[in-house]
Amino acid sequence: MIKCVKCNAKYDDNEVIYNCKECGSVLEIFVDIDKSEVPKETFDCRKDTLWKYKEFMPVDETKIISLDEGGTPFCKCNKIGEELGVDLYVKVEGSNPTGSFKDRGMSVGITKASELGVDTVGCASTGNTSASLAAYAARAGLRCVVLLPSGKVALGKLAQAMFHGAEVFSVNGNFDEALETVTALALEKHLYLLNSINPYRLEGQKSIGFEIIHELGWESPDRIILPVGNAGNISAIWKGITEFHNAGYIDELPMMTGIQAEGASPITNAFRKNTMDMVPVENPETVATAIRIGAPVSSIKALRAIYDSNGYSDTVTDEEILDAQKELARYEGIGVEPASAASIAGLKKLVEEGVVEKGEKIVCIVTGHLLKDPNTAINACTKPIEIDADIEALKKVLLNK
Ligand SMILES: *Cc1c(COP(=O)(O)O)cnc(C)c1O
Ligand SMILES: [Zn+2]
After folding, report:
1. Cα of 20 to ligand 2 centre, how many Å?
2. Which residues line ligand 1 (CB under 6 A)?
3. Which ligand is nearest the CA of 100, by number?
4. For 4-21, how does the pLDDT look when each residue is reduced to its tens digit (9 = 90+)?
5. Cα separation of 49 and 104, whole Å?
6. Residue 28: beta bridge partners?
7. Residue 376 Cα to chain centre, angstroms
8. 400 pLDDT more than 90
9. What digits encode the pLDDT tens for the residues 141-159?
10. Euclidean distance between CA atoms 255 and 221, whole angstroms
11. Are the beta carbons of 93 and 72 closer than 8 angstroms?
C-alpha cells in the first residue's frame, strides 16, 4: 500500500503516482512485518546484497533487476575515531555497482518499473542518480532519459550516464529546475520518474539501515550521520531502522544526523527554527555537487526523521568538506567524492560543539566513490614530479626529500 505522509490517504501499490491527490504531499510505501513471521536468522545465510532482506521489499520477487547492489563495506575507522573520541564506523556506499548508494534505490525502482510494464524511465540528477538509472535501465532494456544541470555534473558521473546509453540533456538551470521539468513530463505519462520522490526508490535505500543494524549484531548505533541533498536517503535509512524496530529486531533507535553544505542548507535552516516548514534556498552553491540542492523533495520525511529520533542537523563549509575528504583518504584509505565527506566534516564539527558526546557509537555514511569527481581530487593535489626513467634520477629526487 502507498500512503500519504501528511493526510494518510491510501493508494494501490500499482498506481503510478508521485504526490498525494488529496493534499499534494509526498508518499511512502507501507511495509509491516513481524519477527514471528520472519525471524532475523532468515537473513543470515543469504547472499550479501540488499535482496537479502527481500521480505521487506514491496515488489514482485520474480521481476528483480539487480547488479548485486548493497552489502557494502562497514569499516571501523580507529584513527579518526580515536582522534575525536568516538567509536566510528564508516559505511562505504561508493562500493556499489555504479559507485553510489543510488544503486540500492534504482534496483527496487527499476524492478517496480518492469513490474508496471513501462518502456521509458527518467530522472533529473546532480549526477549519481543518472549514472545509476542509466545502468539499471540498460540492464532492464528500458529507454532512459536524464536531465542534468549544465556544467555542474562531475566528470565520472557524466561519463557513466552517457556510456550506459541514456539520452542525456544538459539543462540551462539548476537541479531543482531540471527536476521540475522532468516531473512535468512524468505527470503527462511520457516516462516513469525515478527521482527519490518515487517512494520505491527509498524502499531500496532503506537497506542501508538494515545492514548497519545487522553488522552491529542486531543493535542500533547511537547516531547515524550522513550528507543531505534531496533528503531521500536520510528518510529511507530512518524508515528501514524503524521497520526493524517495529518488527522487534532491535530496541534502541539511532539519532539521525543530517549534514548539509553551507550554501545549500534548507533542511538545517528549518531544524534551527524547530519547524517542519522548509524554505527553499535560491541558487544553492557548493563544491559538493551531489548535495547542491535548494528545494529537497523529501524535506517532510527528513525533518520527521530528525525530530522523531532526537537527531540533529548542521552545515559544513566547502573547506571543511574538502579537508574531511582528504583525511578519510590519507588516514583511513577510503576514497570518497566531496559530498560524502560532509558526514565526516559534520562529525568533526559536532564533536567540537559538544553535540556528539565522547564514546558515542557512530556510523558515518559515505555516499559516493572518489572517482566520481576526479577533477576535484586532482585539483586538491600537487602535480607528479617528472623524471627520466633512470634509477639515479629517481634516487636523487626521492632520497633528498
Ligand atoms: C544523492 C547523493 C547525496 C544526497 O542524497 P539525498 O538522498 O539526495 O539526500 C549525497 N551524496 C551523494 C554522493 C549522492 O549521490
Ligand atoms: Zn495527502
Report:
1. 5
2. 100, 102, 128, 196, 227-233, 290-291, 337, 339-340, 367-368
3. 1
4. 999 999 999 999 999 999
5. 9
6. 3
7. 20
8. no
9. 999 999 999 999 999 999 9
10. 8
11. yes
